[in-house]
């Protein structure tokens, strides 16, 4: 293998074609390889049975496959939740979680190993930042999940239908590579996942929200809010000191103005910290500020019961408190759901991804 061999999942269809031209292979061979990667889900050249043996051999020698090494897979929820731990060059951990439902299958993908944002309630934040993943490494997580979903003995065997960038890391701190992964997976000649089947979650990086508003593909935006006021939000989400609540809400309003797309607000409920009736009222008042026109509110609140992180004294809100919070928002006509948690037993739920480092 050459030192600087290209990584196959970082290459577009035309880059693979250019490489094959260099190798004096016909263009249709490049299309075969691309189809093998993204439609047949081949994980290695050896699985590309429609290619001549010599070409498979050359691919194995001169192009890098599997930049992420699969360390282990844990299963929970009767096999319907699967968490993969990968390693980059045998070192920094990266996790992806596949959740299989009756009618759909969703993968939660990491964009970084670790995270610099240090949100108080999040196990990944405690790891600190390790590295930015490449687009190809994000794509590899999705292809792993698609293979798992295809093989799962689940009712109806759903193929992978949704990709949510809510794993380790802040996607907008690695924007270019994150967006390249969306474009690759959306490509109709390849994996062909609809733009509306992608969701990106940000902790409120304002330039990223504004940039997303200008993108052509209508991917969904989720905003990790967790508190309606600066004082508390800065304690829970330190980047709030740089991008305070009002600026974030203004960016969201600009985003909904431009795109007419609904934004999800993620709100982890912590007992006695951000779950009081007064905070529900404040949140409702704040979200009225996202209205694009009087009466048109393109927002939805996702309440997330907190999943304990070892060593963190915070506690999840009690069930009744969660329901009261939801009812308070609904009285203000804010659409609101309580997220059904998956993978708590294998530390695969929201905020629990720490690559086995606790
Ligand atoms: S919640 Fe998201 S942004 Fe905050 S530390 Fe965890 S991974 Fe990073």
What does this protein structure show overall?
- This protein is 34% helix and 19% strand.
- By secondary structure, it is of the alpha/beta class.
- The protein has two domains: 8-62, DNA polymerase, domain 1, CATH 1.10.150.530; 68-346, Alpha-Beta Barrel (TIM Barrel).
- The strands form two sheets. Strands 1-2-3-4-7-8-9-10-11-12 form a ten-stranded mixed beta sheet, with helices on one face. A two-stranded antiparallel ribbon has the order 5-6.
- Helix 10 links the parallel strand 10 and strand 11 (299-305).
- The protein is globular.
- Iron/sulfur cluster binds next to helix 4.
SSE class: alpha/beta
Per DSSP, what share of the residues sits in E-state strands of 2 or more residues?
A: 15-25%
Report the order of strands and helices. HHHEEEEEHEHEHEHEHHEHEHE
| Widest sheet, order of strands | 1-2-3-4-7-8-9-10-11-12
Poorly predicted tracts of residues: none
In percent, how helical is the residue content?
25-40%
Average pLDDT works out at 92
CATH fold topology of the largest domain: TIM Barrel
User: What's the CATH H-level homologous superfamily of the largest domain?
Assistant: Aldolase class I
Gyration radius (Cα, Å) is 21 Å
Choose one word for the global shape.
globular
Reading off the top of the CATH hierarchy, the class of the largest domain is best stated as Alpha Beta
Could you give the count of β-strands? 12
Major sheet:
10 strands, mixed
- How far apart the termini lie comes to 36 Å
Q: What ligands are attached or bound here?
A: iron/sulfur cluster
